Automatic annotation (TrEMBL):
Enzyme class: transferase
InterPro entries xref list: Nict_dMeBzImd_PRibTrfase, Nict_dMeBzImd_PRibTrfase_bact, Nict_dMeBzImd_PRibTrfase_N, Nict_dMeBzImd_PRibTrfase_sf
Keywords for the protein's UniProt record, in alphabetical order: Cobalamin biosynthesis, Glycosyltransferase, Transferase
Family named by the database record: Belongs to the CobT family.
UniProt name for this protein: Nicotinate-nucleotide--dimethylbenzimidazole phosphoribosyltransferase
Function recorded in the entry: Catalyzes the synthesis of alpha-ribazole-5'-phosphate from nicotinate mononucleotide (NAMN) and 5,6-dimethylbenzimidazole (DMB).
GO MF annotations in UniProt: nicotinate-nucleotide-dimethylbenzimidazole phosphoribosyltransferase activity
């Protein structure tokens, strides 16, 4: 883990001053303006520019699926990995129109290894997590390895030309792990952060809340106060591998000086973990969208982020993050490319 420098405060202020001189009423471009200012601070330039993007879709399986907490069977995880590689998933189509490369990081899918593929990054730490109700999801050393797998994937995306970076997730059962980790890191109750994920019915939802409660109780037995415990140890207790890998994507992307974009509930659990490990991440991190998962709003509040989009998505894969790439490019283009009142000879109010 590298130490992350804070974004440049002086550029933040210079960019704010420039926003005020551009040919528009001050504030009239709303959150695009603040996004542009933050991009300026990240890039240390009053005229930020964004080119190609990338999303690292981290995939892994979850032992907790044995508790009946998802509306879909666990075999969907490897099937969707194949679908990502074949270009048939939602994130592939959205990434294509949003100017983003899709990398698939296998950090812990169960089953046979996937055949080699240009965009597949094979880095299995273990074959799915343990069932978090009964046992730790993984060992702390495995959590560290998952974090490093995410960091390495981000470095590859940057070396291949990414100028902004998102993380995505694929892992049946991962909204249960995300709920447990979010409740643990933020000191919230299971019922406050547990949603319906892929669309579980009332009986499965009730079971899911109980599973999260029991997992939190078990983890507390191991680590004591979960809000104060080592965040990576909390993540090892509650998982999942792809959530921890997403944290690594954010940390390495920010360390490389890129804006990094969070997606929905599982990926933003990774962002929370990353921000706990490295508080300076906050300057580099954007929220692509607001997911319908109720716990996502709690995560965004804790991170102090307003989402760029709010489209009633509840899919994951990085879809909501990648959708926000054009918005961020527009924010950069406005600040970098608009004329000032002086330059354009437009009268000020
Ligand atoms: C076909 C399909 C494609 C998906 N793409 C993302 N997810 C999303 O749903 C899963 C989490 O929900 P739960 O906790 O309820 O299992 C994750 O794999 C997540 O990425 C999908 C789910 C399905 C079924
Ligand atoms: O918020 C998300 O990204 C999400 C919601 C449901 C299932 N998977 C992901």
């Amino acid at each position: 883990m590298s130490h992350l420098l804070p974004v440049d405060q002086a550029f933040l202020e210079r960019a704010r001053a420039r926003q005020l001189r551009l040919t528009k009423p001050p504030g009239s471009l709303g959150r695009l303006e603040e996004a542009g200012v933050r991009l300026a601070a990240i890039q240390r330039s009053e005229k930020p520019r964004l080119g190609p993007g990338a999303v690292v879709v981290a995939a892994a399986d979850h032992g907790v699926t044995a508790e009946g907490v998802s509306a879909y069977p666990a075999e969907v995880t490897p099937q969707m990995v194949q679908n990502f590689l074949a270009g048939g998933a939602a994130v592939n189509q959205i990434a294509r129109v949003a100017g983003a490369e899709v990398y698939v990081l296998d950090v812990g899918v169960r089953g046979p290894e996937f055949p080699a593929h240009e965009r597949l990054i094979p880095a299995r730490v273990r074959s799915g997590t343990g069932n978090l109700v009964r046992e730790p999801a993984m060992r702390p050393a495995e959590a560290l390895a998952a974090l490093q797998a995410g960091e390495n994937a981000a470095r590859r995306a940057v070396s291949e030309g990414a100028t902004l970076l998102a993380a995505g997730d694929m892992g049946i059962g991962n909204t249960t792990a995300a709920a447990a980790l979010t409740a643990a890191l933020l000191g919230l109750l299971a019922a406050e952060v547990t949603g319906r994920g892929t669309g579980v019915d009332d009986a499965a939802y009730a079971r899911k809340v109980q599973v999260v409660e029991r997992a939190l109780e078990r983890a507390r037995g191991e680590l004591g106060d979960l809000e104060r415990a080592d965040p990576l140890e909390v993540a090892a207790q509650l998982g999942g591998l792809e959530i921890v890998a997403a944290a690594g994507v954010f940390l390495a992307g920010a360390a490389a000086g890129l804006p990094v974009v969070a997606d929905g509930f599982p990926v933003t659990a990774g962002a929370l973990l990353a921000a706990r490990l490295e508080p300076n991440l906050s300057g580099y991190l954007f929220a692509g969208h607001r997911s319908l998962e109720p716990g996502h709003t709690r995560q965004l509040e804790a991170l102090g982020l307003e989402p760029l989009l709010d489209l009633n998505l509840r899919l994951g894969e990085g879809t909501g993050a990648v959708l926000a790439f054009p918005v961020l490019r527009a924010a950069a283009a406005v600040l970098g490319g608009m004329a000032t009142f002086d330059e354009a000879g437009v009268s000020e109010g």
